[in-house]
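Pipeline run #58 for the internal structure catalog. This entry was flagged by the ingest filter as a single-chain record with no existing model, so it goes straight to prediction. Upstream metadata was stripped on purpose; only the residue string is passed forward. Reviewer on rotation: M.T. Logging verbosity set to normal.
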Amino acid sequence: MEVSGQRSYSQRSPGASWAVVLDAANLQDVPALVLEVDDPRRDDISGLLQAHLDLVRGESPPEDVHALDLTGLLHPGITFVSARRSGALLGVGALRELDPAHGELKSMHTAREARGQGVGRAVLNHLLGVAQSRGYDRVSLETGTTAGFAAARAMYARAGFEPCVPFGKYGVSPYSLCMTTALG
């Protein structure tokens, strides 16, 4: 299905596997960014996930690191997606179902060389679209409060996420910020 002439969405099987191709026609000679359900065990993905874990572990004390490891990302309640351009991995993200009306963003990370190019926002928008297709009323997330998470917090705020009380197993911490947005 074509949306606004710039994005196409396709669903491979009901409620399971999505692919999004963002048309780069207006970006001169930049190839399209392809977002799709992927396997976090792939070599390039595991490297990017390690960079993600290194970042969060460097910014937060151990008790405030809530990033999922590979085993956590393989849980059946999690949809993991990658963003690639010309086959090169640029970003990842995941959506975990908390309950039939509430999803949580996890493992959002953009490769250093791709930051500032809209990759994170594309992954975020894609996952919000998946959440809407599942009928979720709300999507929430937990992120860090230190300078290393400033760009992520700003991106989430621009997308309509607002600070909220800790949800799920999260607790109050000076290193942790919970945010949420209603889907409509």
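catalog note: Confidence is low (pLDDT under 50) at residues 1-27.
catalog note: The chain has one domain: 2-182.
status: ready for reviewer M.T.
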